[in-house]
Write a structure and sequence with these properties.
single chain, alpha+beta, Pseudouridine synthase, elongated
Length: 237
């Protein structure tokens, strides 16, 4: 077995709002002239936080790393629904808000706890017959898609100042938090969409140990090697 290269492993990036997860991968590939680069778990363009970038032979561990549980924090805007279930979508409906308390919101949020089947939104990267759903959605098409088994460990709001509520959620891989926001709005009878989202944790990795996308692009090759979590450490985690 050949020795591992210093760049065989993973790099923790704190993704900013704006670029897609693929944009981050592509920029790192070009900047450091890397042959094999990937990411573990897509973040929507306006979502921020932990993005695990795998390099070299580290790409072989993508599935393993993607299967880990996740923790997010974010905000929900109540009273408005969008076609994508988040702030990037087109406004579908707007309803006046009746007085709600934080306890009432959390009472509804608690009904999400546990195992459940969740339907991926049309505006998502899930593929149907090889075509990402979001490409079909752009054409105004809606197709049948399969619900996925997910588990919500916690879904709790910490603050509510009309019309925004701040929350924290811990869940299994493949969970669409914007779908949760949309469904919560339906339960409360006022409609809602995901306003902001930030990934804090994926498995054993925390965004506190990540570097910003800008910092990563400005690293020297030597400093990049120092930031890479080695393949053997990843494989044993």
């Amino acid at each position: 077995m050949r020795e591992f290269d210093p760049l065989d492993g993973a790099l923790l990036i704190d993704k900013p709002a704006g670029p897609t997860s693929h944009d981050v991968v592509d920029a790192l590939r070009r900047t450091f002239r890397l042959e094999k680069v990937g990411h573990c778990g897509t973040l929507d363009p306006n979502a921020t936080g932990l993005l695990i970038i795998v390099l070299g032979r580290g790409t072989k561990l993508s599935e393993k790393l993607m299967s880990d549980d996740k923790v997010y924090e974010g905000t929900v805007k109540f009273g408005e629904t969008t076609d994508s279930y988040d702030a990037d979508g087109e406004l579908v409906s707007s309803l006046p808000l009746l007085p709600m308390t934080l306890d009432e919101i959390n009472e509804s949020a608690a009904t999400f706890h546990g195992d459940q089947m969740q339907m991926p939104p049309m505006v998502s990267a899930v593929k149907v017959k090889g075509v990402p759903l979001y490409k079909l959605a752009r054409k105004g098409l809606e197709v049948e898609r399969k619900a996925r088994l997910i588990r919500i460990y916690t879904f709790r709001f910490t603050q509510y100042e009309e019309p925004y509520g701040s929350f924290r959620v811990a869940c299994t891989k493949g969970t669409y938090v914007r779908t949760m926001a949309h469904e919560l709005g339906q339960k409360l009878g006022c409609g809602a969409h995901l306003a902001t989202l930030r990934r804090l944790v994926s498995g054993k990795f925390d965004v506190a140990n990540a570097i910003t996308f800008e910092e990563a692009l400005n690293l020297s090759n030597v400093d990049l090697e120092k930031r890479v979590i080695p393949y053997l450490q990843l494989a044993g985690s």
